[in-house]
Amino acid sequence: MPILSKPGSSRPIDGVPTRLRSEKFIRFLCFACAAISILTTLGIVLVLSTEAIAFFTKSKVTPAEFFLGTEWSPTFNDPKFGIVPLVCGTALITVGACVVAVPIGILTAIFLSEYAHPTVRKIAKPVLELLAGIPTVVYGYIALVYLTPGLRTFIKELEVFNALSGSIVVGIMILPLVSSLCEDAISAVPKGLREGGYGLGSTKLEVTSKIVLPSALSGIMAAVILAMSRAVGETMAVTLAAGQTPNVTADYRQSIQTMTSYIVQISKGDTPTGSIPFLTIFAVGATLFLITMGLNIVAIKIVRKYRKVYA
Q1: Cα–Cα distance, 260 to 237 (Å, whole number)
Q2: Are 93 and 166 in contact (CB under 8 A)?
Q3: Is there a contact between 177 and 227 (Cβ–Cβ < 8 Å)?
Q4: Is pLDDT above 60 for 3?
Q5: Quick check: is 74 in a domain?
């Protein structure tokens, strides 16, 4: 507790009241910023919930029909509101992107942390992270103009818009996230653990695979799940590369539609505000919000669980 006056005197020490006022202002400013974040999240949840309830009320579609239905055609004369095709398309892109990004990202992180020369690390990591700064629409056009034609020379049945191209470009997009977070997690492993392994006669590979990676498991798993959340929410690259055809399929050669690309399609301005197709935006958005929130909760639980093991 600060001394506000000199011994034997009631006169305050010069500058103390000013410092206390500054501390109170900084505390209030930090609280206001935190409150803005919380209130923004609550506002988004409130809007999504209100409009999603309005969709179910106005369309008279039951939650079971919405979440289990296999046909999605809300703008047709005989509308169908089964969201499974959109969830399936989103899952295809997410799984495909993780297949591309996770192995490459983890191996890149191992190289940068354990094998690369410090000079190489200082250059390679910022260059890799530059991939995250490329606009997503650029990735979409690259997939449409260059990647898909190249793939069609090997896969003749590949459609112009397909899930394979979308998965590859989204995997490249989330690669910096996976590699950077995994590299941070691996670098955070105490040096003493490595030296202990070397002291027992272990090789570099054995120390990396049996000591370092298990110790960094919580950070690696969190990076993977956060990258999945990023892939689930990707919009423009998927819209341009994968198309807008809602299908329930596991064939990466076909055109699909994700939840985000559907929101883009309806948000172009052709749909009347307040209509049932317009309200589907919020129903789909609420579903997407629940999926990403679930992935983030899983990531937090994994970090807490394995951090206790390797503390």
Answers
A1: 10
A2: yes
A3: yes
A4: no
A5: no
